[in-house]
Amino acid sequence: MLTTKSGCYSTSTLFDYRLNSVESAHYILIGLKLNVSDLEMLKKLLTIRDFIRWGSSEFNRRHLSFGHGFTTALDEARYLILYTLALPIDWPDNYLDCQLTDVEREQVFDILKQRVNSRQPAAYITHESWFCGLKFYVDERVLVPRSPIAELISNQFEPWIGGQPVNRILDLCSGSGCIAIACQYAFESADVCASDISPEALEVAAINRSEHDLDEYLTLYQSDLFDDIPLQQFDIIVSNPPYVDAEDMSALTAEFECEPALGLAAGKDGLLLVDRMLAQAGSYLSDHGALFIEVGNSQAAMMEKYAFLPMTWVEFEYGGGGVCCIQGFDLIQQQVMIESVNSL
Predict the structure, then answer these.
(1) For burial by CB atoms within 10 Å, which of 20, 65, 149, 245 has the most?
(2) pTM above the 0.85 mark?
(3) What dihedral angle (degrees, nearest 10) is formed by the CA atoms of 276, 307, 330, 221?
(4) Is the model's pLDDT at 9 over the cut of 70?
């Protein structure tokens, strides 16, 4: 039975409603709440292309923000629609004019409205994200993977490793485990470890470790940086730690506020964890080892604070920045200065 309240069609159980007797458009609405304008709009959206266009416009009208794998309203709308239809993201454009069934139209409309109303990043809605060409499970316990470090991994950290053997790798502040897992693919014979302070994040990392059949290879540590990691030497330490400074934290959009603050906030200058990492990393690096660390918008603060420390800032072919390489021997040589700066 159909009831109306405040211009909305509501239901607590399954019902059928015939929108237009001429078109005989028959919709099965299960637990949805659509207002009159939604229902009228749904009548007019017939093809995949229709929904991509409408979804993109709706995302822009509602001032959604992007940056969790997609940079535009068009790309994110397309992804959500094709995901809902169980189609690959590279589905050919000449099939976009195919008409959808009534049920498919409802499902696509629903996921687009969910993105608008919840302001959740698309990855939290679909529980999937891609990094280094690999698929990962994600939810609100971890940040959505989006680091330019993917390009470094694809190039096996060259030329900064200089052709030296890579036998052991540590991913600090691992979150979903995507960096560590991608490193295991890039260096199949290496021993790879991943660490995070959050037990919830490590649960997600464990899911991804199993999904990639790496349970017997990838070691997970629950640790506040190096505190609970047994002393050992790594040829590569790579980290995408929290680096958002206080000013940027206060200006986060709703989408970024959906992510765990523990994975973002890093004090007034964004270097709260970086300071500790630089003070300890030298002891965990081999003679030819190197530290790769992402600090994003806190790059200027790091360059000013550690002007005495040799750092190479990576220029990425496919975009992104704020990632530097520091050789282990430089960390050891500048240990006293690092500790002095951190004591101020």
Answers:
(1) 149
(2) yes
(3) 20
(4) no
